[in-house]
Amino acid sequence: MEKKRNQLRQNLFQAQDEVDTKKDDLLDDLEQELRQTEVKKRLFVLDWEVI
User: Fold this and answer.
1) What is the pLDDT of residue 11?
2) What is the spatial distance between Cα 3 and Cα 23, in angstroms, rounded to a whole number?
3) Number of neighbouring beta carbons within 10 Å of residue 18
4) Looking at the predicted structure, is the pLDDT value of residue 42 above 80?
5) How far apart are CA 2 and CA 8, in angstroms?
6) Burial (CB count <10 Å: 0-12, 13-18, 19+), residue 39
7) Using one digit for the tens of pLDDT, what is the confidence trace for 7-40?
8) Cα–Cα distance, 23 to 8 (Å, whole number)
């Protein structure tokens, strides 16, 4: 009985470690996507003339 309980506990800890690893990977991916780069690009030009 105790052997089975220990095995189940070990399985639980292993599953928790896997969840933590997956969570960390997802957070890293999300952080990477949220980083924004600034790009300057001329969209149009207006010429003015006073008459």
Assistant:
1) 97
2) 30
3) 10
4) yes
5) 10
6) exposed
7) 999 999 999 999 999 999 999 999 998 887 778 8
8) 22
Distance of CA 4 to the CA centre of its chain: 37
Query: What one-letter code names the amino acid at 33?
Result: E
State whether the Cα torsion 16-22-26-29 is positive or negative: positive
Query: Residue 6, class by beta-carbon neighbours within 10 Å (0-12 exposed, 13-18 middle, 19+ buried)?
Result: exposed
Residues 20, 25: Cα–Cα separation, whole Å: 9
Residue with tokens 């006073």: 50
Whether 49 has a pLDDT exceeding 80, the answer reads yes
User: What length does the chain have?
Assistant: 51
